[in-house]
Automatic annotation (TrEMBL):
Species the sequence originates in: Nothobranchius furzeri (Turquoise killifish)
UniProt-listed GO biological process terms: G protein-coupled receptor signaling pathway
Domain of life according to the entry: Eukaryota
Cellular component terms per the entry's GO annotation: heterotrimeric G-protein complex
The UniProt record lists the keyword Magnesium: no
Keyword Membrane: yes
SUPFAM superfamilies the UniProt entry points to: Transducin (heterotrimeric G protein), gamma chain
Protein role: Guanine nucleotide-binding proteins (G proteins) are involved as a modulator or transducer in various transmembrane signaling systems. The beta and gamma chains are required for the GTPase activity, for replacement of GDP by GTP, and for G protein-effector interaction.
Molecular-function GO terms, alphabetical: G-protein beta-subunit binding
Keyword list, A-Z: Cell membrane, Lipoprotein, Membrane, Methylation, Prenylation, Transducer
Membrane topology qualifier: Lipid-anchor
High-level lineage: Eukaryota, Metazoa, Chordata, Craniata, Vertebrata
UniProt record similarity statement: Belongs to the G protein gamma family.
Protein name, per record: Guanine nucleotide-binding protein subunit gamma
């Protein structure tokens, strides 16, 4: 039983080391650079953002239904 437990612990340790190696190789940038990039992206795409510009009523699937009246 303890041999099986030791084998399981070894597999877990190997997976952990593998994951840590992957994470160590991730390209990182400074937070200030990431913020500047995000700000530039938002400013460049603001004109296409429906939360800022609104959705045309013809394209809005959630618009209130129009009332019908029969004459």
């Amino acid at each position: 039983m303890s041999n099986n437990n030791a084998h399981s612990n070894l597999i877990i340790a190997q997976r952990t080391v593998k994951q840590l190696r992957v994470e160590a190789n991730v390209r990182r940038i400074k937070v200030s650079q990431a913020c500047a990039d995000l700000k530039n992206f938002c400013l460049q795409n603001a004109s296409r953002d429906p939360l800022l510009m609104g959705v045309p009523s013809s394209d809005n699937p959630f618009r209130p239904p129009k009332s019908c009246s029969l004459f």
